[in-house]
Amino acid sequence: MGRLYSAKMLCKPVAIETGRYMQTVEILAKRGLVGKRLDLAMVEETKGLSRRKAKSLIDDGSVFVNDQRVRIASRQLSFGDRLTFRYVPDNKKKPQPVQISERDILFDQAGVIAINKPVGLPSQETKKGDRFHVVPLVKRFFQTKGRDLEHLALAHRLDKETSGVLLLGETPEIVAHLMDQFREKTIEKTYHALCYGKAQDEFEVRCRLTAINPKNGTVKVSQKSGKDSQTFFTRKEYYQKSGMSLVECRPVTGRSHQLRAHLAKVRNPIAGDKVYGDTHPKLSDELYHLVSQHHYLHARLLKFTLPGQSKKLQVKAPYPKTWQSIIELLRSPLT
């Protein structure tokens, strides 16, 4: 860990799995920083922090001046201002692409494959032409087992940062069978979400949501241009010290970003959601690091039928490692 020049470390660095460290930084505005933009002051006073990263931290609500959150990068500092923020220095090592392994295969029967989609893996090819998305990686895994799944295709999608049960079909007919169940709302879907605030014991959200705006990648509530959406929620656990809740989500409809938008609407945004959520100032460094990695939405369980069968079967996905770590911390009496 490099020296932070005139920035002051407020706590010990927190080691994380990638070998990087969470740093908590405090900068006191003296003569040289008076009148300087917030983002430029952060870059000048913090070794290894790029201006783009500084702007991102400000936009995410991770930067405080005199204990007040500031989201304006052009804000000018005054003499004596105390600037604080936490960040993980960039790892210069090229990140390893996500792969599909044996443990990710939850179900493989009658032409239906269910995987536990890892966090960070796109369901389908992105605009950037990312080669690492679900279908080619699942094909590659089964090729190592001597199976050629030429016509493998997705039956539905999950957001890149959402983990959990994802269904694929080996033929167009099987994919159509699964997609029909989603369209007819006969598939039972259960998600788990870690949210900020104390959620109600039981609640329902109904509203009309727009399609994703291609300019900013978000949906919004709109009575005029939106489509009906509905989700039932149950609070499973509440972690008083951190002010967070574990919520079970049972969506009836399947609009884009539905659960994220619904929980934000009732002021229980999903932890780590940089689009619909907010940075939580009460979190410890350990929790802050985990929350900063991705949003905490997990497709926990699906109930569906196989072709030619009427009895529903159930596929359940265990939590990823980050989920296991954060829940262990949240349940700890010391957190």
Automatic annotation (TrEMBL):
Superkingdom, natural source: Bacteria
Keywords tagged on the record: Isomerase, RNA-binding
GO molecular function list: RNA binding; rRNA pseudouridine synthase activity
Tagged with keyword RNA-binding: yes
CDD domains assigned to the protein according to its UniProt record, in alphabetical order: PseudoU_synth_RluA_like, S4
Catalytic activity field: a uridine in RNA = a pseudouridine in RNA
Active site: D159
UniProt EC number: 5.4.99.-
Pfam families, sorted: PseudoU_synth_2 (PF00849), S4 (PF01479)
GO BP: enzyme-directed rRNA pseudouridine synthesis
All residue ranges annotated as the RNA-binding S4 domain in the record: 36-94
Family: Belongs to the pseudouridine synthase RluA family.
Job of this protein: Responsible for synthesis of pseudouridine from uracil.
Protein name: Pseudouridine synthase
Organism for this UniProt entry: Pseudobacteriovorax antillogorgiicola
Classification lineage: Bacteria, Pseudomonadati, Bdellovibrionota, Oligoflexia, Oligoflexales
